Every structure is written in C-alpha cells, then in structure tokens.
Amino acid sequence: MSSQLIFHIVSKRKWRECFQDGSYSLKTDEDSENGSGIECVRINYLNEYLNQHFKGRKNLFILVIDIARLAHKPVVSEDQELIHIDNEIRSEAILDKIRIDCGKEGQFDLTVFSS
Q1: Is 5 left (phi over 0), alpha (psi -120 to 50) or beta?
Q2: Is the residue at 84 inside a domain?
C-alpha cells in the first residue's frame, strides 16, 4: 500500500452532512472551528486511532485519501502519525469509502495487507 494514502474516519451521519457539491468539508464541525481541520492517519496508526477515538461506535466510514490528489498540502504532525487537511477534500482525492463497525467488545481490529 502506498505511503501516499491516508485515512479519515467519519460517521455515516456526518458524511451525509459534510459531503456536498463534490467535496467533503468540516466547516460546521467543532474540530474545524478549533483549527485542527480534517484529521487523518497513516495505515500503521489506523487501528490504534480507531480504538482511541471511536471505541464502541458503529456506522463509520473510513475514507481512503490519496495525498497526491489533494488540492492543498496537508500538515503532518511531528510524530508523523496524524495528518491535518485544512480545507476540503475534493471527491477525486477520495479513492474509497469503507463502512465499518466495532466488534462485540467495542474494539476495532482491521487487517490491512500492503504490497
């Protein structure tokens, strides 16, 4: 799997609210108002991120995003695990939208194979 791919987690409800006119934007979200933008992670941090921030949640989407297709360069955290996108994500940068639910104990355990 390419290092050019990053992942954003969003609820099904918020996806419907925030995807309009061919782009995904959190302009009305409290995270965006606090300046953190759209928070994304790399594949190696995905399970940990899901279990820290979405434990027990269902009806979630993982957006698979190609960094090279973003209109603006994202900001990468010092530890390289979090990536923040300040503006919108145009639909051409979203390669896939995968629906997930937590397991019986509320945890996520995704297996991702990379080539």
Answers
A1: beta
A2: yes
